[in-house]
Amino acid sequence: MELNPVKSLASKSLHESSVLGFEFLHFFEIVFLFGGFGFGVGLELANAIVGSRFWLQLGG
What we know:
The chain crosses the membrane at residues 24-46. Keywords: Membrane, Transmembrane, Transmembrane helix. This protein is mainly alpha-helical. The chain is built from 1 helix and no strands. The longest helix has 55 residues, at 5-59. The protein starts with a helix and ends with a helix. The model has no long low-confidence stretch (mean pLDDT 76).
């Protein structure tokens, strides 16, 4: 137990907020990676669908 309760409380809350901040950033990193991957796949799928329809219209 520390002698200064305010200091220990401040350092504890600071530590918790930094851990939370790190978790938050890590969560965003995962979301960004998966979101970017999903967006790329979605774009490719949309491009393929639109492209195939375009070529079908052009050929037909």
